[in-house]
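Changelog-adjacent note: as of this version, every example in the card shows the full chain rather than a window. The one below runs 254 residues end to end.
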Amino acid sequence: MVHAKIEIIPIHIPAAIKPDDKLDLIILESICKAHENLYDRDIIVIAQKIISKSEGRIVNLNLINPSDKSIQLARKNCKDARIVEMILSESKEVIREDRGVIIVETRQGFVCANAGIDQSNVEDSDNHVVLLPIDADESARKIRHSIKKQTTKNVAVVITDTFGRPFREGQTNVAVGIAGIKPIKSYVGTIDMYGKKLKVTEIATADEIASAAELVMGKSDRIPVAIVRGCMYDAEDKPSISNLVRRREKDLFR
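Full-length structure tokens:
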């Protein structure tokens, strides 16, 4: 099988995204201004930050009254107690906290630092934070549906955020919301090139697409969107990002 060439096209969005902005229309307008077109089976990759901003997931820390638990945890980890209060409120469980790092399981099921709460590229970032979308799968579905309605093109949508990784330095983009694309490609039961049956090989397709798109995306460059074209993927009408989250009983570190 000969694989097609894959293209990753950056989409510049110069305006700051605000609550209640019609992000689907802004993305389509920006694609047009970039003199690009959409095609069936394109993948639109969108940074979580602009999803959260458009959905009003911005918190004014001046309105937060931290609990005694948050104050104690903040002192221990040299953090703003208001942010710690938000971390706890957005989390199911604190997995580990040490040396200024608080690892939690978020309400969405992700295990990450600080519940994905971010102060970068936010107006008055000393007193405001951006939270993860409540349901990024639903956010992705809405955008995908709108784009199909506006353009007739059947695309997939991947919403991304930057996470750290166990045992590896640096951070990389991962998928936190999906629509129209199966997040994992399983090779379990297939035969390798030497005739051996594969038992565990599963490829995190959505994460790989998210990471690849990050190569052309940039916060400071105002490129929060990219089009990935030519990538082979399995379509799925209503996928769930939860399929990428390792179940607790299989997690050796919890």
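Structural remarks: Helices lie at 23-33, 48-54, 68-77, 81-89, 136-151, 205-214.
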